[in-house]
Amino acid sequence: MNIHEYQAKQVLKGFGAPVAAGVAVTSVDQVEAAAKSLPGPLYVVKSQIHAGGRGKGKFKELGPDAKGGVRLAFSVEEAVAHAKEMLGNTLVTAQTGDAGKQVNRLYIEDGADIERELYCSLLVDRAHGRIAYVVSTEGGMDIEAVAHDTPDKIQTIVIDPETGVTEADVAAINAAYGLTGAAAEDGKSLFPILYKAFVETDMDMLEVNPLIVMKDGHLRVLDAKVSFDGNALFRHEDIKTLRDETEEDAKEIEASKWDLAYVSLDGNIGCMVNGAGLAMATMDIIKLYGKEPANFCDVGGGAGKDKVAAAFKIITADPNVQGILVNIFGGIMKCDVIAEGVVAAVKEVGLKVPLVVRLEGTNAELGKKILNESGLAITAADDLDDAAQKIVAAVG
Predict the structure, then answer these.
(1) Of 131, 172, 239, 327, which shows the fewest CB atoms inside 10 Å?
(2) Within 10 A of 90 (CB to CB), how many other CB atoms are there?
(3) Are 101 and 233 found together in one domain?
(4) Residues 254 and 391 in one domain
(5) Catalytic residues
(6) Same domain for 179 and 149?
(7) Residue 167 sits in a domain of what CATH number?
(8) Average of per-residue pLDDT across 130-154
(9) Is 134 in the same domain as 99?
(10) Residue 28: which of 83, 108, 86 has the closest Cα?
(11) Annotated binding residue at 117?
């Protein structure tokens, strides 16, 4: 689960991290009061969407010469003017794709006197099976570009879960940044704080870009991007309340209610599969034969009839779907249960696009019999290759 920058900063502030004062607003009428509540005289007006690259982004409605989604304001009046241009318009960044995201809220934040910009993130390092700091002196930049062009400027510090962040770890991070004086002292408290927040709230990723050294020598979290492990949210009712469903795909929200692994994609062939590996193989073979998958949908190994029907309805609700491929290998999942779910869903929502079904494994013959006797326009396939060719041909 992703959250907005202002929410991420509130979470980190609760653990003691240094962040600037700021106010989130959802209408232009709130901006003047928000700005006046801050020290000033410099304000930063930040678009709040679930995507990076906001500062370099462009608003669709404002033309190529307009300022981006993060702007400086040197007066309350200028902050209001920025808000009028930004709220309700669509911001396109490198991470949103061409469709962009509508800006429904802004964060009005007190400005900072910046001496240096650093990059800091925490993530689960799969190679070591531990949480690691990824740090660079090249803050405020595209970290992927830094990794490609100057990989020597990125360092990884792996944290031992039994000890947490030690003095030696802090020293290593400080050394990687070249911090001295007040900034190095701040690091002694900040870096353990970030690790503690990561672990105790079950984060997937915490990115501070930039982490700044201010002109007074102290550290401050200037931007923050946080995502949480969705499987651990049951432990964090307070974190769950931070979810902004307006930033998510409606189909993915509905899928989460049924505990379906569903991700919307840009293609036109809907996929319903059991097992993540099989789902990946199904998407690959659709691409092999010249089409693109419209979604990743894994109903899991123990889905019942109702769950299968729900998955089918979610797939058919996508207006981009011009054909559907159901590919099931029955192990724990029984093919007749899949067949019953598909038949029930088709009878309820109708079938307006070609549907190809490949069943193999437990109760496969019974499942095929259910489909064949349903009276529905369902095309059977013998194997995955046959299924992919048939759905691609049907879509044309």
Answers:
(1) 172
(2) 17
(3) no
(4) yes
(5) 119, 207
(6) yes
(7) 3.30.470.20
(8) 88
(9) no
(10) 83
(11) yes
Residue 54, annotated ligand binder? yes
Dist. CA 125–CA 205, nearest whole Å: 11
Residue 79 near residue 65 (C-beta atoms within 8 A): no
Say if residues 27 and 272 touch (Cβ distance below 8 Å).
Answer: no
Q: What is the domain-level CATH number for residue 333? A: 3.40.50.261
Both 34 and 79 in a single domain? yes
Burial 163-201 (b: 16+ CB within 10 A, else e): eebeeebbebbbebbebeeebbebbeebbbbbbebbeeb
φ/ψ of residue 184, rounded to 5: -65, -35
Give the pLDDT of residue 26: 95
To the nearest whole number, what is the mean pLDDT of the chain? 91
pLDDT in tens, 219-242: 999 999 999 998 899 999 999 999
At residue 348, the pLDDT reads 81
Report the predicted TM-score, pTM, of the whole model to 2 decimal places.
0.80
- Report how far apart the first and last C-alpha atoms of the chain are (Å, whole number): 37
State the pLDDT at residue 307. 80
- Please give the Cα distance from 379 to 394 (Å, whole number): 10
The more confidently predicted of residues 284 and 66 is 284
Domain end call among 77, 95, 110: 110
Q: Is 270 among the annotated ligand-binding positions? A: no
